[in-house]
Amino acid sequence: MNPGNRDIQTRLPGVQSLCRLHIKGRNRRLIRLENVSWTLPEGGDIIRDLNLTIPGGKLTVVTGPNGGGKTTLAKLIAGLAKPSAGRIWLEGEDITSLDVTQRARLGISFGFQTPVRFKGLTVQDLLETAAGRALDFDTLCDITGKVGLCTVDYVDREVDARLSGGEIKRVEIASVLARGTQVSIFDEPEAGIDMWSFKGLVDVFNRLKREKRTLIIISHQQRLIDIADEILVLSEGQVRDQGPREAVLPGLLAGEIAGFCPVGRREKAQ
Ligand SMILES: Nc1ncnc2c1ncn2[C@@H]1O[C@H](COP(=O)(O)OP(=O)(O)O)[C@@H](O)[C@H]1O
Ligand SMILES: [Mg+2]
């Protein structure tokens, strides 16, 4: 538990349970990074002393130049990378030492930028593994339909190299939906998805947003940035900007070159 929260409860023992409820409600599914760094084995910080809070129940789009550390940040939150320094909190609980499976049990799921392919595993197998239970036809239809795949055509397909880049990406997003976790991280979900299906993808995220899930979407796509509650701009392993969309978007659009040139961003930030 967050030491600050414990302190409040010690000082007010009479209202302890009420207080715990209030704290839990207020901090629900919120993620906090405290002085987090991630250093390469050969040296060099990819993430540098990062302090940030990702609000619970909201859609945060993480954007910024290529190589800025977005995927690394996502892996640190999902437990696929261990911080070299610092702590990571979920709802006031220190999850720094938890591995990816333990974090998945706490309700964090991650859709890879480049999804893993599994020979011999069908789409249905993958979705059922993600959901942790057998799925009936209607449920499969519902999940695959959300990502624009027809269940009849796809449930028996293997999640192997024969699926196209766009298809595997949709299956990956469907598996995150099947997990139904409270915190879902999507790394460039638009990659490989044709423009024709893009509206469907935006609808999926809007639906999750209405359900008050905590969503972290790494993206450069304006149509996804447009539905963000919060925008986090990451460059050279550091936060360049963060806040409500209305506050961050004008600066992001004005400094468009910064999306491509980290030097441009650094010069602008000074
Ligand atoms: N395991 C690794 N070994 C070496 N370099 C890495 C490794 N992981 C990430 N990097 C480097 O760290 C930087 C940030 O990577 P990444 O987080 O994938 O950036 P982004 O997702 O913002 O494009 C890049 O320069 C990348 O090449
Ligand atoms: Mg990336």
Could you explain the architecture of this structure?
Helix 1 packs antiparallel against helix 2 and helix 5 (about 125-130) runs parallel beside helix 8. The chain has about 270 residues and is an alpha/beta fold. The strands form 2 sheets. It has a 6-stranded mixed sheet with strand order 6-7-8-3-9-10, sandwiched between helices. A 4-stranded antiparallel sheet has the order 2-1-4-5. Helix content is about 40%, strand content about 20%. The longest helix has 16 residues, at about 195-210. The model is unreliable at about 1-25 and about 255-270 (pLDDT under 50). It is built from 12 helices and 10 strands. It has a domain at about 55-80 and about 100-260: 3-Layer(aba) Sandwich (Rossmann fold), CATH 3.40.50. The structure holds adenosine-5'-diphosphate (ADP) and magnesium ion.
Quick description:
This protein is 41% helix and 22% strand. It is built from 12 helices and 10 strands. The chain has helices at residues 3-11, 16-26, 70-78, 100-105, 123-131, 137-146, 151-154, 165-179, 195-210, 222-225, 245-254, 262-269, and strands at residues 31-39, 45-54, 59-63, 85-90, 93-94, 108-111, 183-187, 214-218, 230-235, 238-244.
For the secondary structure, the number of strands is: 10
What ranges have pLDDT less than 50 throughout 5 or more consecutive residues?
A: 1-27, 257-270
**Main β-sheet: number of strands, strand sense, barrel status?**
6 strands, mixed
Number of helices: 12
User: Gyration radius, to the nearest Å?
Assistant: 19 Å
Helicity, in percent? 40-55%
Order of helices and strands: HHEEEHEEHEHHHHEHEHEEHH
CATH architecture heading of the domain at 57-80 and 99-262: 3-Layer(aba) Sandwich
The CATH homologous superfamily of the domain at 57-80 and 99-262 is called P-loop containing nucleotide triphosphate hydrolases
CATH topology of the domain at 57-80 and 99-262: Rossmann fold
Distance between the termini: 37 Å
Q: From the helix content, strand content and strand pairing, which structural class follows?
A: alpha/beta
Mean pLDDT across every amino acid position: 84
Percentage of residues in DSSP E strands: 15-25%
User: Bound small molecules, which ones?
Assistant: adenosine-5'-diphosphate, magnesium ion
CATH C-level label of the domain at 57-80 and 99-262: Alpha Beta
Gross morphology is globular
